[in-house]
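Blackboard transcription, Thursday session:
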Amino acid sequence: MDDLIQDLTRGNVTEVKVVLASIVAVLAVYQVLLMAVGYGKLRLPFLKPKAASFAHRSIGDTIALITLLVAFMCWGYFEFSDGIEHALPGEEGRVLLHVIAGTALVGVLIFKIIVVRWWRSLGRFLPFLGLTVLGLFMLTWFSSAADYLWGG
Amino acid sequence: MSDGEPARPIQLLGSILVAVAIVAITIALVTAKIGPDVYTRERAEELQDQIEERQELLEERRESREELLEERNENN
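(Written on the board underneath:)
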């Protein structure tokens, strides 16, 4: 599994993860703005709620795929226990937070998609689920990619 | 959630294009921050090592030449 991921990323596993994670984190913010328009909370003359909702669904499917790809790379290459075990001194807390937030993110995102597509009776919880997904994206990104980019 | 109006294709397309632009800008900013990839970095280090070896070799040759000149001067 390690070799496959190394080959796919040409040896730049962390760098590819950082780029992809940054993309989905920024798009997550955009997604919230789209649904603010979709729910009528934000009124824009050039974007109607239905178009915003459709765009949210289309972009959301892409974000979900990229997120699962990043999760696969993370779990497959760094693994849960290995990542925490081999963290640098003083970094164990940050790595643990990243593992928990990242895993929760995948779970909540999948649950949200299930609610949207099949479990519509829980539709009233979608705004809460969406904001939770955003929060988990930010937490996961800050605990890894942001640290890599600015933490040294 | 929706106001009963049909989705406008051009608005949908515009929203998606904005997302594409966001992706492009993010990639540009993050890759600029990360720097060259691992192969480029390794190649740059190899080249640096080669330059240092060459400089050491030139230094050794210069020292040998100077020693030889000194010996000749002493003999003369």
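Lecturer's comment: The helical segments of chain A are 2-8, 13-38, 49-78, 80-85, 92-117, 126-142, 145-150.
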